């Protein structure tokens, strides 16, 4: 039922890709861009465009499923207040390191969470690393 309602990740990579583990020569598998083989998916522009499009659609479907679970399912006729509530559920609040005392457990009730700008940048870097490697 979940798959029928929200869809699923459906991805096929048709071309043959390198089978050798060229990552192992690099600490933390941080392969320099110029060292990726030309036939690696990381250098395939068409593949990356398709992959990112599918990934974004997966994230949107996951968000819609979460919103529906919390009673904020997609409704084109929803009021402005309900649309704002839907948006707030995924809002991330940022606090500077010297203001963390104000990031208490109640400061973000009903929102996606809180973090610092430095931590946010680190998260983006780790996610990108996980995708590429």
What does this structure look like?
This protein has two domains: 88 residues, no CATH class; 43 residues, no CATH class. It has four helices and two strands; from the N terminus they run H-H-H-E-E-H. The chain has 133 residues and is mainly α. The longest helix is centred in the middle third of the chain and has 25 residues. It has a two-stranded parallel sheet. It is flat and about 50 Å long. The model has no long low-confidence stretch (mean pLDDT 79).
Q: Can you tag this structure with a few keywords?
A:
133 residues, mainly alpha, 2 domains, two-stranded parallel ribbon, 41% helix, flat
Q: Give the H and E element order.
A: HHHEEH
Number of beta strands: 2
Q: Which residues form runs of ≥5 with pLDDT under 50?
A: none
Secondary-structure class? mainly alpha
Tell me, rounded to a whole number, the average pLDDT.
79
The gross shape turns out to be flat
Tally of helical segments = 4
Q: How many structural domains in the coordinates?
A: 2
Share of β-strand residues: under 5%
Itemize the secondary structure elements and their pairings.
Layout: H1 2-6, H2 45-69, H3 80-88, E1 92-94, E2 113-115, H4 117-132
Q: What is the gist of this entry?
A:
With 133 residues, this protein is mainly α. The chain contains 4 helices and 2 strands. It has helices at residues 2-6, 45-69, 80-88, 117-132; strands at 92-94, 113-115.
């Amino acid at each position: 039922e979940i798959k029928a309602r929200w869809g699923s990740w459906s991805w096929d990579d048709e071309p043959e890709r390198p089978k050798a583990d060229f990552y192992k020569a690099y600490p933390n598998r941080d392969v320099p861009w110029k060292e990726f083989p030309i036939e690696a998916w990381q250098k395939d522009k068409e593949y990356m465009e398709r992959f990112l499009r599918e990934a974004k659609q997966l994230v949107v479907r996951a968000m819609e499923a979460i919103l529906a679970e919390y009673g904020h399912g997609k409704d084109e006729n929803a009021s402005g207040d309900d649309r704002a509530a839907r948006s707030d559920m995924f809002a991330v609040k940022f606090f500077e390191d010297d203001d963390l005392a104000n990031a208490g457990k109640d400061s973000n009730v009903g929102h996606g969470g809180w973090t610092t700008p430095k931590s946010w940048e680190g998260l983006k870097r780790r996610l990108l690393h996980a995708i590429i490697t």
